């Protein structure tokens, strides 16, 4: 003979409810993105009257930083030492070197070297979430350089400390 047993359980009899909490965290880090224009000089004519005047150009550095960041922009001295008096940098080309420099100020009296930082101005594009800064680099090729025709270039590292 088989015995069948049936037990009915109510829903409360199966168990209970238990809960816990979960810790949620994030770290907001300081950040600063940097972008630059090309410092592009117009044609340099060493054999005419222009050779007696320096050749100037400008470029813009733009920083986009998180709020509260106090950035400082630094420039390397480029890949080539200057080849003439009155400059710290040089562009190289097939014909040799063309000396130039980058200055912090529009009067081109304060050379922008590795331990100096340029003046930043807050851009109108700034918001509460991101602060945008802009600054100008002032380039100059000294007058009177006798160099062969050709394309000349240099690479300068632009760094932002924040």
Can you lay out the helices and strands and say which pair or pack?
Blueprint: E1 32-36, E2 55-65, E3 72-75, E4 89-93, E5 96-103, E6 121-122, E7 131-141, E8 152-153, E9 158-161
Antiparallel strand pairs: 1-2, 2-7, 3-9, 4-5, 4-8, 5-7, 6-7
Describe the 3D structure.
With 162 residues, the chain is mostly beta strands. The chain has one domain (31-161): Fimbrial-type adhesion domain (Immunoglobulin-like, Sandwich), CATH 2.60.40.1090. The chain is 0% helix and 32% strand. The chain has no helices and nine strands. Strands 1, 2, 4, 5, 6, 7 and 8 form a seven-stranded antiparallel sheet that branches. Strands 3-9 form a two-stranded antiparallel sheet. Strand 4 and strand 5 (96-103) form a beta hairpin.
Note the main attributes of this structure.
162 residues, mainly beta, Immunoglobulin-like, 7-stranded antiparallel β-sheet, two-stranded antiparallel ribbon, 9 strands, elongated
What's this model, at a glance?
With 162 residues, the protein is mainly beta.
Number of domains: 1
Distance between the termini: 87 Å
Q: In one word, what is the shape?
A: elongated
Oligomeric state, counting identical vs distinct chains: single chain
At CATH's second level, what is the architecture?
Sandwich
